[in-house]
Design goal:
The chain contains 12 helices and 12 strands. By secondary structure, it is α/β, with parallel strands linked by helices. The strands form 2 sheets. It has a 10-stranded mixed β-sheet with strand order 1-2-3-4-7-8-9-10-11-12, covered by helices on one side. The chain has a two-stranded antiparallel ribbon with strand order 5-6. A hairpin with a 4-residue loop joins strand 3 and strand 4. Helix 4 packs across helix 5, helix 6 runs parallel beside helix 8 and helix 9 packs parallel to helix 10. It starts with 9 loop residues before the first helix and ends with a helix. The structure holds S-adenosyl-L-homocysteine and iron/sulfur cluster.
């Protein structure tokens, strides 16, 4: 059975049902899957039993399975999810006082070779399907009883993978997540983060329904960026800035620039001044991320004083925040998603 129900849009569900079934049946399925988030064909009890059995024989339901869960002392949960072909990928649930954030993956592994990131070490295994992207949200919302209509919920496409290298599926999943008749997320609560694949940034900007855009800058100049993110030898900083200036922001939107601070490498006051200058004319904000460590990552976390100094310099020109690490003790924080399962490794973060 190749096809899966989750990931199909309203039109595709109608096609699946065929012309003999009335239109309201496809609406019932669409709402059952995306709005009511039922767990499987068995729970779609609005359908006649015979129709359910007939559809279940043709199409799998398509929710990923939980292969393992790691619980952090700070409430963060990292899920290792098993997909239909047996591959596994990660999603992270981060509760906060006034909202919940889900960090989801767009690919199994990542083909981009950022030197500070554990996911890079996996290489790319494959793109996720539309259903596997949306399915992470549906499953975690179900497991944690989340409902975007009741409590603020954010989705960040910052898990495994480079979302702009799987743009078609990411955009289609976003349409399903943002459909008021479906999952019902506000577009402004969905954010995609990219290492800066320039032509795909332009393509994303042309989409009528799309996540907010965050760009991993991570360096204050071209040479430094190329050393830390070798893919940027192809996508130059000046062209990236031009694409950002031309990006069609919606009235409520700002560009976000993420900047991983690597102790003694890109965290000097001069770096901060260069970043401020680079972004000065953009409608943007900056999120600083102190390096989250991992085995085989040959960089140091910067001193807290450095982070503060960097932040205060950038803040003179544009809004600048420090991202609080979540789930460090269970390898769930930014750049730590590498399907870490060994208990000894999972404990490294807890000791720090
Ligand atoms: N691939 C996308 C999204 C996933 S990575 C991207 O790179 O933008 C999400 C963020 O984590 C990126 O801003 C990335 O620069 C950052 N990151 C990667 N490795 C990190 C690490 N070891 N510590 C802190 N942040 C890291
Ligand atoms: Fe891929 Fe993002 Fe990690 Fe770079 S930082 S290797 S783009 S997941």
């Amino acid at each position: 059975m190749e096809a899966a129900l989750i990931g199909l849009d309203a039109h595709e569900i109608r096609t699946l049902l065929g012309p003999a079934e009335p239109a309201f049946r496809s609406r019932q399925i669409y709402e059952g899957v995306y709005r009511n988030r039922v767990a499987g064909w068995d729970e779609l009890t609005v359908l006649p039993k015979s129709l359910r059995a007939q559809l279940a024989a043709r199409v799998s339901f398509g929710l990923p399975e939980v292969a393992a869960r790691y619980d952090s002392a700070d409430g963060t949960r990292r899920y290792l999810l098993r997909l239909a072909d047996g591959k596994t990928v990660e999603s992270v649930f981060m509760p906060e006082e006034d909202r919940d954030t889900l960090c989801i993956s767009s690919q199994v592994g990542c083909p981009v070779d950022c030197q500070f990131c554990l996911t890079a070490k996996m290489g790319l295994e494959r793109n996720l399907t539309v259903g596997e992207i949306a399915g992470q949200v549906i499953l975690l919302a179900k497991l944690h009883g989340l409902d975007p209509a009741e409590r603020r919920m954010n989705i960040v496409m910052m898990g495994q993978g480079e979302p702009l290298l799987n743009l078609g599926n990411v955009v289609k999943a976003t349409r399903i997540l943002a459909d008021p008749a479906g999952v019902g997320m506000a577009e402004r609560r969905i954010t995609l983060s990219t290492s800066g694949i320039i032509p795909k940034i332009r393509e994303l900007g042309a989409e009528p329904v799309r996540p907010k855009l965050a760009i991993s800058l991570n360096a204050s100049g071209e040479d430094q960026r190329q050393a830390l993110m070798p893919i940027t030898r192809k996508w130059h900083l000046a062209d990236l800035m031009a694409a950002c200036r031309a990006y069609p922001l919606r009235p409520w939107e700002k560009l976000t620039f993420e900047y991983v601070l690597l102790g003694g490498v890109n965290d000097s006051d001069d770096d901060a001044r260069r970043v401020a200058r680079l972004l000065a004319n953009l409608n943007a904000k900056v999120n600083l991320i102190a390096l989250n460590p991992g085995p085989g990552i040959d960089f140091d976390t910067p001193d807290p004083g450095r982070v503060e100094s960097f932040k205060s310099i950038v803040s003179r020109s544009l809004p600048c925040f420090v991202r609080k690490p979540r789930g460090l003790d269970i390898f769930a924080a930014c750049g730590q998603l590498q399907r870490m399962t060994e208990p000894s490794l999972v404990k490294i973060g807890a000791a720090t």
